[in-house]
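Annex B. Sample input.
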Amino acid sequence: MDCASLMTRIVSRPRGELVLLLLLFFAAGAVFLFVQLVEAVREGETHAFDTAILLALRSSADGTDPIGPAWLEIMFRDLTSLGSTTVLTLITLGALGYLLIDGKRAAAWLVLVCVTGGTALSSAMKLGFERPRPDLVAHLVDVHTLSFPSGHAMLSAVTYLTLGALLARVQPRRRLKAYILGGAILLTLLVGASRVYLGVHWPTDVLAGWCAGAAWAILCWTVAAWLQARGRVERGEAAPAADRTS
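Annex B, continued. Sample output.
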């Protein structure tokens, strides 16, 4: 089959199938990037990159002094807590409560399975790769676990992107969907960046965490879309025409 025929067959599919195919494509891309990072880290190809980034975030005269004003360090300490187990658990419970009160029990179960499954996957990968924490610069927060992939980065992606996508799917208004997804992505990026700034992760730990977390979240989005198409997960209420186009 030539390329033109393949494209014709894809475009002729129903819109729902196209969405599922697109989601699976992005999930596969995130997995591919994660595998490439794993291979590069194991071969030592990322050492120069990791080292350069960590040193660039520290004063050249004092490895314990991060660049920027004092409030910037305080801000990143606060932001990194948004990826902690305690905060993510509270946010997940809050989202579950919202869905249950709104009568969306199937969506609540899907959120619970996605977040707990992603958490288990993160823990398993940390134990499997066993990469030590960077000792190049001083750690500005206490850490006691292994380094690759970054648990904060991955669990933030798993939780915020999964919740953002699933909550957005049960919202009828496009502006609300965009707002929820944009906030989820921003939180994920800020938490991951904070881990590098605080010196507790190599940059490639965070990149790998983002890739793995995004792949899992997108897989959850795909399952949600597939179940919604079959009426097994609740859809949002119908919106006025003006809202659907805005």
